[in-house]
Design goal:
With about 475 residues, this protein is of the alpha+beta class. The protein is about 30% helix and about 20% strand. The strands form 4 sheets. It has a 7-stranded antiparallel sheet with strand order 5-9-13-14-15-8-7. Strands 1, 2, 3 and 4 form a 4-stranded antiparallel sheet that branches.
Length: about 475
């Protein structure tokens, strides 16, 4: 095991099992409207080479970042132990401000709206093996010393549906009661997609322009991951997400926006957060409630388990906390460096790839068409095409000089650096927009979650909804899938 991560694991366990690792501490969005919180907790010391003083900055209501007062200390050069200590203090500072309910049951925020659904199904609850840990297996179900009871919710539950939807996109979720219903609908959707997106005919020569457009389409998701859409001015460039606002309201402040697509095993994630007065946010909260299947405090997520389908087994069911994001991304005022982007374009110009693909496809088709087979089966024709292509590609690769991969590792590359002004100019030139650096902050436990839809599993989660601060002055819309 890598020594660095082994040390990290041991230290985090030693500090407290209650505190999970947060995000980095260097840099805070200057647009944050909250003031510095200078109080007794701000005077705690971090054991670096010399004790330092901390300020806690409220990034969003109830969520804090620890900032070192001593400007001579570079946060990027802190040891792993120091970083863990800072993160622990951020959690400790935030937790002292939470309004903790004295009730042993769920708070009044917990709601489900499907009158025919039994969220206290003891038979299903007793099947959950993930819950039966060493610390809880002797507590029983709905008896004993456990802090909270358990509940079960399902994606096929009916949403609230009360109230008019004007400010946000409609939410029309698929309420599949069985896995077979879901699979049947997915097969239909795939067939419709393939009918509409047949791609190019392998047996017809493509123009260079067509090849270039195909390559650019393939590379676009990578660009959006490395340079996410996170400038509020570009909200219309984001995909239309059910339940999200149709536009960012004029009163919105402390806005943090992010959008990146899924790519291979990567997870798609979209968020929009903004603040306002309780009166300004009330219609947005009302619509979130109308779209919800479940309303719950974030601190109660681990007590609610998901039954995906009516015929699902609950042995290894996930809790809602495994499906819903625990933190949000916050946007800084500096743009993502363009050095790698520019260098890659210089080292691997797209026009060169286009020329190579164009030449290869013409050579393959010329060789392939030398053989004409009457009434050739479609599958056999495809197989013969790909065999021809592989033979030609192997012959071409054999003529190329061998790459010295040891001396060309990406981590050893030095990319050009630019000033912030130059970087912004390059982003506008190549991306036609600005993309900012990001940090993250954990959503406080006393936020109320309005869950519109959910599903998947812990390693491929899906969730759609909104989180609202206790004072109803901040709202976080989220959608993750992957």
């Amino acid at each position: 095991m890598n020594k660095k991560y082994f040390v990290l694991m041991l230290l985090s366990l030693a500090l407290s099992s209650q505190f999970s690792l947060a995000a980095t501490v260097d840099g805070v969005n200057p647009n944050t409207s909250a003031e510095l919180k200078n109080n007794a907790k701000s005077n705690q010391s971090v054991q670096t080479k010399a004790p330092v003083k901390l300020d806690f900055i409220e990034i969003i209501p109830g969520a804090f970042k620890a900032v070192i007062r001593d400007k001579s200390i570079n946060p990027k050069k802190l040891s792993i132990e120091d970083e863990i200590t800072l993160e622990w203090k951020e959690k400790e500072h935030a937790s002292q401000r939470l309004k903790i309910s004295e009730k042993t049951d769920f708070g009044s925020e917990y709601k489900t709206f499907d009158l025919l659904y039994n969220d206290k199904d003891e038979q299903a609850l007793k099947e959950i093996k993930n819950y039966n840990t060493e610390s809880t297996r002797n507590q029983g179900y709905f008896i004993g010393g456990r802090d909270k009871p358990l509940r079960i919710v399902s994606p096929y539950m009916k949403k609230n549906g009360q109230g008019e939807i004007k400010l946000t996109n409609p939410v029309n979720t698929k309420d599949y009661r069985t896995r077979a219903d879901r699979d049947k609908a997915n097969e239909k959707a795939i067939r419709e997609y393939l009918d509409q997106n047949k791609g190019h005919d392998l047996f017809t020569v493509r123009s260079k322009q067509e090849i270039k457009e195909s390559l650019e389409s393939l590379l676009k998701p990578i660009e959006l991951i490395e340079y996410p859409i996170n400038n509020p001015k570009d909200y219309k460039m984001m995909p239309m997400i059910p339940g999200f606002p149709k536009k960012i309201p004029g009163f919105a402040k402390n806005i943090h926006m992010h959008s990146n697509p899924s790519f291979f095993q990567g997870r798609a994630y979209v968020q929009l957060t903004f603040g306002g007065t309780p009166e300004q946010l009330k219609p947005y909260i009302d619509e979130a409630r109308s779209n919800s299947k479940v309303v719950i405090l974030k601190s109660d997520l681990s007590h609610v388990y998901v039954k995906q389908f009516i015929d699902s087994k609950m042995d290894y069911a996930d809790s809602l906390s495994a499906l819903i994001p625990r933190s949000i991304l916050t946007v800084k005022n500096t743009t993502v460096p363009m050095g790698k982007f520019i260098q890659e374009r210089q080292d691997h110009p797209i026009d060169k790839f286009v020329d190579e693909i164009y030449e290869l496809e013409n050579q393959v088709l010329a060789e392939f068409n030398k053989v004409q087979i009457a009434d050739e089966d479609k599958s056999a024709k495809y197989k013969r095409y790909f065999e021809t292509r592989k033979r030609i590609e192997d012959a071409r690769d054999a003529l190329k000089p061998k790459q010295d991969y040891e001396n060309k590792r990406a981590k050893d590359k030095v990319y050009p650096t630019y000033t912030e002004k130059e970087n912004r100019k390059l982003q506008q030139q190549y991306l036609h927009r600005l993309s900012y650096n990001e940090d993250s902050v954990e959503i406080p436990d006393n936020y109320v979650l309005y869950v519109f839809d959910f599903g998947g599993s812990w390693n491929h989660p899906y969730s759609l909804g909104a989180a609202v601060s206790p004072d109803s002055n901040y709202i976080i819309y989220f959608c993750q899938q992957g």
